[in-house]
């Protein structure tokens, strides 16, 4: 049992890994290993949509990472949730189905990644999808990834939507046809009022397959590199070392934090970093762990009068009982809520041709995740820069695999990002001051109307900014020697090693990143099978 042989080894049973295991194990003569550092997804809060509140910051489901102290956030360090459980981040995320915009993928193609333009990737989005509205030019039906309407309604969100239209942003039905300019309710990855994670979608239907072996609660310590070939991985299970050998290839699907960490622990990366921790250099690539991009959200909070929000519903025993009963009987109401219900995509300035900012609007308010909801009716309009210019890093800080990596997103380090932040707050204020919201007499609770000048708003953006959990780019693909991965997702400088997760994105997509990651895995599985 200390040495086992497979054809393909997949490291990480998250969004990408579960789909890869499904697709590759369809070929009966392939022996597949799927390795997950976390445990089963049988925790009830994973499946109840509002349970994300109890999964982030919970060692049962979260790696419990933290960022370094951020100059752009006025010295603050942020909690950095990443899924450590079967299903990975699809088990703890916001369940929002969002592809981004056509220009995102066309830009990837223009960077030299042939085959990754919008027209190239759209069929892979459609193949996986099971849209509640059926199939059409942009959407698919019959796939495993259910896309559903939300099972709730809030008057305050309807009115905010009307206010957005009054501010000059159109109401639309679909955010996923290539240009997401407008306001609409988000569509979600849920089924019958329950979260749909990648385990339920892709693994449970194939659990009978004899050529797939799943290793849970096993952390990969390093890739075995022999010469310039990845020949397997070493894993740690209850302090016992197990060697898994791959006949065909190793696939890293450990995400934008995990994949560069494993590469560096294996001697693949910047020699200056590897030498510092006594790691033998196998492949010199100074871009491993670089190019980290993330969406920083600015949570603009309003105190309301006469509004029905989640705050007052949960601040009484009767309100909580009513919420629980509605969900138990109908699978509707607040317990079926994704973290954000209403979305807005807009331009922060007139010279942008397509949206560069996104709002996540919620009928609730709190100071930070984990805190109780406020004791007044509240609304939060979180807004993020979709295409930040700031770039960060993820690097090891020890040769011990148990030591978490150093995560430095470098938020708001570029002046253009600071400018977008200021204009984002101003747009939130413009919307809230439209006639549709007047009846609620909104008062800005955070950051506060006392902050008005550009310099004041730049500083306060650093006070209220927090991650929206979309790290990408640390193993970016490109058609040049210094890229970490090639357009076929193979690692430069090594044979039989591929990376399939959000880390390969050269630039971040314009919206939530889970479904683009699923698309990457669908396209990768097609490429891999065509080569076998």
The class by helix and strand makeup works out as: alpha/beta
CATH level 4 superfamily of the largest domain: FAD/NAD(P)-binding domain
Assigned CATH architecture of the largest domain:
3-Layer(bba) Sandwich
Question: How many beta-strand segments?
Answer: 24
In oligomeric terms, what are we looking at?
Answer: single chain
User: Uncertain runs with pLDDT below 50, 5 residues or more?
Assistant: none
Written overview of the protein:
The structure is a single chain. By secondary structure, the protein is of the alpha/beta class. It folds into two domains: 1-148 and 188-293 and 391-409 and 471-532, FAD/NAD(P)-binding domain; 151-185 and 296-385 and 410-470, 2-Layer Sandwich (Cholesterol Oxidase, domain 2). It has helices at 15-24, 44-47, 52-55, 102-110, 118-128, 155-166, 198-203, 255-265, 271-276, 310-314, 317-330, 415-432, 454-464, 514-531; strands at 3-11, 32-35, 65-66, 79-80, 129-131, 145-147, 182-185, 190-191, 194-195, 212-215, 219-226, 229-237, 240-252, 268-269, 283-284, 296-303, 342-346, 357-362, 378-385, 393-395, 406-408, 443-446, 465-467, 497-499. Strand 8 and strand 9 (194-195) form a beta hairpin. The longest helix is centred in the C-terminal third of the chain and has 18 residues, at 415-432. The model has no long low-confidence stretch (mean pLDDT 96).
């Amino acid at each position: 049992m200390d040495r086992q042989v497979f054809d393909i080894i997949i490291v990480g049973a998250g969004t990408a890994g579960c789909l890869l295991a499904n697709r590759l194990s369809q070929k009966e003569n392939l022996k597949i290993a799927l390795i997950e550092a976390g445990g089963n997804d049988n925790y009830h809060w994973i499946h109840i949509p509002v349970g994300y509140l109890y999964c982030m910051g919970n060692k049962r489901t979260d790696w419990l990472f933290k960022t370094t102290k951020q100059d752009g956030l006025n010295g603050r360090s942020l909690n950095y949730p990443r899924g450590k459980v079967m299903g990975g981040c699809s088990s703890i995320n916001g369940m929002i189905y969002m592809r981004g915009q056509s220009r995102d993928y066309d830009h990837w193609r223009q960077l030299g990644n042939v085959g990754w333009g919008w027209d190239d990737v759209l069929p892979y989005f459609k193949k996986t999808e099971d849209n509640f509205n059926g199939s059409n030019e942009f959407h698919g039906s019959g796939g495993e990834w259910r896309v559903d309407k939300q099972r709730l309604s809030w008057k305050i969100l309807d009115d905010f939507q009307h206010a957005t239209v009054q501010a000059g942003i159109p109401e639309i039905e679909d955010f996923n046809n290539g240009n997401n300019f407008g306001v609409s309710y988000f569509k979600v990855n849920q089924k019958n009022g329950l979260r749909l994670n990648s385990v339920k979608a892709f693994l449970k239907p194939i659990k009978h397959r004899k050529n797939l072996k799943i290793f849970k609660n096993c952390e990969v310590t390093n890739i075995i590199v022999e010469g310039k070939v990845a020949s397997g991985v070493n894993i740690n299970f209850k302090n016992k070392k197990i060697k898994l050998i791959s006949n065909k290839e190793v696939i890293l699907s450990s995400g934008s934090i995990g994949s560069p960490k494993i590469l560096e622990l294996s001697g693949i990366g910047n020699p200056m970093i590897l030498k510092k921790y006594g790691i033998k250099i196998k492949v010199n690539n100074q871009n491993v762990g670089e190019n980290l991009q993330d969406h920083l959200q600015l949570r603009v909070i309003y105190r309301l009068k006469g509004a029905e929000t989640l705050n007052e519903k949960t601040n009484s025993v009767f309100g909580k009982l009513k919420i629980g009963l509605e969900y138990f009987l109908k699978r509707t109401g607040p317990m079926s809520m994704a973290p954000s219900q209403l979305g807005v995509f807009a331009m922060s300035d007139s010279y942008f041709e397509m949206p560069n900012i996104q709002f996540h609007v919620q009928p609730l308010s709190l100071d930070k995740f984990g805190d109780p909801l406020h004791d007044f009716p509240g609304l939060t309009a979180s807004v993020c820069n979709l295409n930040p210019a700031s770039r960060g890093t993820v690097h090891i800080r020890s040769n011990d695999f148990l030591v978490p990596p150093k995560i430095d997103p470098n938020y708001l380090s570029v002046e253009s990002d600071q400018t977008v932040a200021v204009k984002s707050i101003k747009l939130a204020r413009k919307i809230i001051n439209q006639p549709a919201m007047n009846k609620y007499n909104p008062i800005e609770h955070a950051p506060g109307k006392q902050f008005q000048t550009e310099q004041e708003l730049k500083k306060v953006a650093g006070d209220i900014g927090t991650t929206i959990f979309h790290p990408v780019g640390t193993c970016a693909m490109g058609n040049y020697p210094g890229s970490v991965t090639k357009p076929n997702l193979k690692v430069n400088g090594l044979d039989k090693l591929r990376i399939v997760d959000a880390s390969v994105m050269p630039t971040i997509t314009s919206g939530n990143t889970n479904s683009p990651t699923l698309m990457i895995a669908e396209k990768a599985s097609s490429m891999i099978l065509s080569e076998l």
